[in-house]
Design a protein that fits this description.
There is one protein chain. The protein is of the alpha/beta class. It has eleven helices and twelve strands. The protein has an eight-stranded parallel beta barrel with strand order 1-4-5-6-7-10-11-12, surrounded by seven helices. β5, α4 and β6 form a beta-alpha-beta unit. α1 runs parallel beside α3 and α9 runs parallel beside α11. The chain is globular.
């Protein structure tokens, strides 16, 4: 069964959702702790918690997010602004089960590869991608999706050699758009790595979850859902039931 990771993205102390990762497109949804507790009460075993201000390099909600982690009884994947030993250790010290490293995987590959080797299952690498200008491949994005970070498969090959055990793959042109997940991208990534793959971006319906579940034999392990839950396209309970039925 795919793991469901309901998302709580935090900016300026509030739970928000973006469209295609663009700053200025935020829609606020209130208190991050209340959002996370709602997903927990609904039966989710995980929460995907993101510090957007840290990801964009415009501030930090670290203390607030540490409080959210401490208040939850479920596993947390914590993301945003983890770029060196100090920020990594601080993120893990919150009690988060796993941290997600994005920009540093591209800008500081030597550090990233060491961390992947040292921390194993406690570290996932976030691969945020868009089609390249030629339309024949995928370009990675860094710094809160504001800078290009190289070719997806070149980086994935490097991560494979470093022993990366899990990647979070986001087609950022679909993130927050409710247009469905990028199934072809996920199939391609699964074909290029033995790492477990978590799908992110575009999930809009229970049928999208059913489609993602068909990729589990290829290596897709979980799915992050955000805007679809906030807008009521489906509930956590409904999502979990569909994923159980599709297993």
């Amino acid at each position: 069964m795919l793991t469901l990771l309901p998302a709580v993205d935090v900016a300026s102390g509030e739970a928000v959702r973006l469209v295609q990762g663009a700053a200025g497109t935020e829609t606020a949804y209130g208190d991050p702790l209340e959002a996370a507790l709602a997903w927990q009460r609904a039966g989710s075993a995980w929460v995907h918690l993101v510090d957007l201000d840290a990801a964009f390099g415009r501030g930090s909600n670290a203390e607030q997010l540490a409080g959210v982690v401490r208040a939850l009884d479920v596993a947390v994947e914590l993301s945003g602004g983890i770029r060196d030993d100090a920020s990594l250790e601080a993120a893990l010290a919150t009690g988060a089960r796993r941290v997600n490293i994005g920009t540093a995987a591209l800008e500081d590959p030597e550090w990233c590869d060491r961390v992947v080797g040292d921390y194993g299952d406690r570290v996932a690498i976030g691969l945020d991608v868009r089609r390249n200008t030629a339309g024949d491949g995928w370009t990675l994005s860094a710094r809160g999706w504001t800078r290009d970070g190289g070719d997806l498969y070149d980086v994935l090959e490097r991560l494979n050699k470093a022993g990366c055990v899990r990647v979070v793959v986001t087609d950022i042109t679909r993130d927050g758009t409710m247009t469905g997940p990028s199934l072809d991208l996920l199939r391609e990534v699964c074909g290029r790595t033995d790492a477990a793959v978590i799908a992110s971006g575009g999930v809009s319906s229970l049928d999208d979850l059913r489609a993602l579940a068909t990729l589990e034999p290829l290596g897709v392990e979980g799915v992050i859902a955000g805007k679809s839950l906030y807008l009521g396209a489906f509930t956590v309970e409904q999502a979990l039931e569909v994923l159980r039925e599709s297993a």
